[in-house]
Write a structure and sequence with these properties.
The structure holds two protein chains of two kinds.
Chain A: H1 2-20, H2 26-34, H3 38-47, H4 52-65, H5 69-78, H6 80-85, H7 87-98, H8 102-116, H9 125-130, H10 145-155, H11 159-168, H12 172-176, H13 180-204, H14 209-256
Helix pairs in contact in A: 3-4, 4-5, 7-8, 7-14, 10-14, 11-14, 13-14
Chain B: H1 2-19, H2 25-34, H3 56-60, H4 62-78, H5 92-103, H6 105-117
Helix pairs in contact in B: 4-5, 5-6
The chains are: A mainly alpha, B mainly alpha.
């Protein structure tokens, strides 16, 4: 019996250092992160004797800290279960990716949907922009509701209708999507070009080169305005969506205060 | 007497030339700091067209080259003489050239002309904050 206890103790002494020193020193990593010691941080993680999954998890945090998004997704695929087990990190990432370009953002929310099915309202903020409805407006926090409302209104504007309006009277399409300044400049510039064309046609006739040049300019700007209204309507909705997601990111950053380290 | 005068003059010249200071790093630094605002900026390198990105029809269409050539000519000859700056981050001429390259002569020209007609200082006020760059220009990209 005593012999067995002794044997267990000897093994415990042998195995203890292996367990004790094969972990990431979180306080040290936090120190490296706070002082932005990138090279030292990377070197420490690379040479740490932890499991491959744990190493990828730490590397994922490292890449988020230095905003290396594509590298983060490489590490995320290797340590998916560990990342999604850490709620604080997931919160941080959600707030972080709300502000990022669409390609990374949609990739992250796709992963999030697979793991969490967007249960929480704040996780859903991205989902709301994919399928915007009037009913969903009430689920948005009051502080960022006006931003969502502006986005929702912009999605209800029809690009073809904007183009038709611009065809009837140049610039009206811009007024329809909420750009009064652009309406004024477009209306004036195309109006002047139209008047100039008409004047040269009246005085010089249709076959005169100056009339043809004037008419060319007028028709070019007129057609460009019609097509531009169509494009602007889509661009405006996209811009306001981005604005709302940025507001949402700021709001959740302020209310939840998720930290990386 | 003359001999002494020549000797004195020679010594003066030698001392001036040997102990006279050249343009040190400090004076160079001062000079560059003082004339910093008056330096002529390096000429921006313009690319005519990235033919690799174009479709076969676009490559064979001569109007594409004429339109892009006109833009190229404007950028290299006319634009430098006009001291105005564009409201957009990618200037109207560059944007038109890129649009022609991506969408072809018809659609590309329409996109370019529309940007030109909306290139006014007031346009900034109709965009969200995140679209305005730190230099105060509207970020525009073809996507």
């Amino acid at each position: 019996m005593i012999k067995q206890v002794k044997l267990i103790l000897v093994w415990a002494f042998v195995l203890f250092p292996l367990f004790a020193f094969s972990q990431i020193d979180t306080a040290f990593v936090a120190y490296l992160a706070n002082y932005k010691m990138k090279t030292e941080h990377a070197h420490y993680l690379e040479n740490s004797s932890v499991s491959a999954e744990q190493k990828s998890f730490e590397k994922a945090r490292f890449h988020v800290l230095y905003e290396e998004d594509s590298m983060f997704f490489v590490e995320l695929n290797l340590a998916e279960s560990l990342v999604f087990a850490d709620n604080e990190f997931v919160s941080y990432l959600t707030v972080y990716f709300l502000k990022k370009p669409e390609a990374y953002r949609s990739l992250w929310f796709q992963k999030l949907m697979e793991h969490m099915a967007l249960q929480s309202a704040w996780f859903a903020s991205h989902h709301l922009t994919t399928y915007p409805t009037r009913d969903s407006e009430m689920t948005v926090p009051e502080e960022i509701r006006s931003s969502y409302h502006r986005y929702l209104k912009s999605t209800q504007k029809n690009p073809f209708l904007a183009a038709t309006f611009s065809g009837i009277l140049p610039g009206i399409g811009q007024l329809y999507i909420g750009k009064p300044r652009l309406f004024a400049t477009t209306f004036l510039s195309i109006g002047v070009l139209g008047l100039q064309s008409f004047e040269s046609y009246r005085k010089l006739g249709i076959k005169h080169p100056l009339t043809l040049v004037n008419l060319g300019f007028f028709s070019g700007f007129y057609l460009a305005n019609i097509y531009g209204s169509y494009r602007d309507t889509k661009a405006k909705a996209k811009e306001l969506r981005e604005e709302y997601l940025r507001d949402a990111s700021d709001y959740y950053q302020y209310t939840l205060r998720p930290t990386l380290y | 007497m003359n001999y002494k005068l020549y000797l004195l003059l020679a010594l003066l010249i030698v001392s001036c030339s040997s102990f006279g200071q050249g343009a040190s790093d400090v004076s160079n630094h001062i000079q560059t700091k003082v004339f910093e605002n008056y330096q002529v900026l390096a000429k921006k390198r313009r690319v005519f067209l990235n033919v690799q990105d174009m479709s076969r029809v676009q490559k064979l269409n001569p109007t594409t080259y004429i339109a892009a050539g006109l833009m190229f000519l404007y950028q290299n000859v006319l634009s430098e003489q006009i001291s105005t700056t564009c409201t957009y981050e990618v200037s109207c001429s560059e944007y038109t050239k890129l649009a022609i390259q991506k969408y072809g002569i018809l659609k590309g020209s329409l996109i370019g002309v529309h940007q030109l007609s909306s290139c006014t200082p007031g346009a900034k006020k109709e965009h969200c904050k995140h679209v305005i760059s730190s230099e105060g220009k509207i970020k525009n990209s073809l996507d």
